[in-house]
Amino acid sequence: MSVTVRIVRFHETGPSDVLKVETVPLPEPAAGEVRIRVKAIGLNRAEVMWREGSYLIQPDLPAQIGFEAAGDVEAIGPDVESNWLGKRVSNMPSFSPNMYGAYGDVAILPVHALSEIPDTLSYEQGTAIWAPYLTAYGSLVRIGHLDKNDTVLITAASSSTGLAAIQIVNTIGAQAIATTRKADKKGTLLAAGADHVIVTSEEDLVERIVELTEGKGARLIYDPVAGPGLESLARAAAIGGTIFEYGLLSPAPTPYPLRTALLRQLTIRAYDAAPEMFQTPTARKEGKAWLLKQISEGRISPIIDKSKFKLCDIASAHDYMESNTQFGKIVLTP
Known about the structure:
By secondary structure, the chain is an alpha/beta fold. It is 30% helix and 25% strand.
């Protein structure tokens, strides 16, 4: 086994070129930790914000990066059960990014974050299940009480989390309305399970929602964008509806649509899956059991983007992620 490995770190915040692939001594797991030999790394938009210094917390420089990886457990800390050794695992992002990072040939991770990869899934699929699906599950199902009679509006729907939300809505039997900025993704979103797709560069969002719901609006709205578009989402919501804001993709301020919210009796809820799902044991256990059941029954299968990046291409992979041209989870391999 090599006594050195590659990891990705950044010594200053900024654009993708601050990400550096560095060679370091092989790290050893401490108490409560394991070391996995990484086979696949799932990218997340939150990692762009972490790299830029615009995440919810600031990085301690030099900082590692990466919320999700899949691989084989090759070493364990002194108090970790030996039966973890050799297992195919992926991890939930249930830790501070200042504590752990998954971009590398190996990753030191807390054992509480690990889960065995179902036999039916590849390493690439294994690193694409937890963040997208449990983020959507925690908001739409656990908090929103998604019902088969509901209409759910899913914005930025070609992202891994948007596609996960579509599949979850499908499993419940509700109506999924997806949005995309460009018409070239409409067909693939319909094929991925969306009942309707609104191309926002060509169609008026509120008018189409009114039409598709016979004037009722969407009871649940799942949005990672925020910004000034929140007003339109509020007008597209059903009376008594809930808008989940789980991201900050818009660089613009997000004015609160108070008048519309009052008139339509809306709940506009900020949703951070880290404390509400991944770092809360009861919620994490519930969500994991639900998701694994859906996977075993063949009702959910993660969609992987067609891109092929290696660890040495990490800056290019981040640029690609920021281009918003992907469809599904961007996964790179060492």
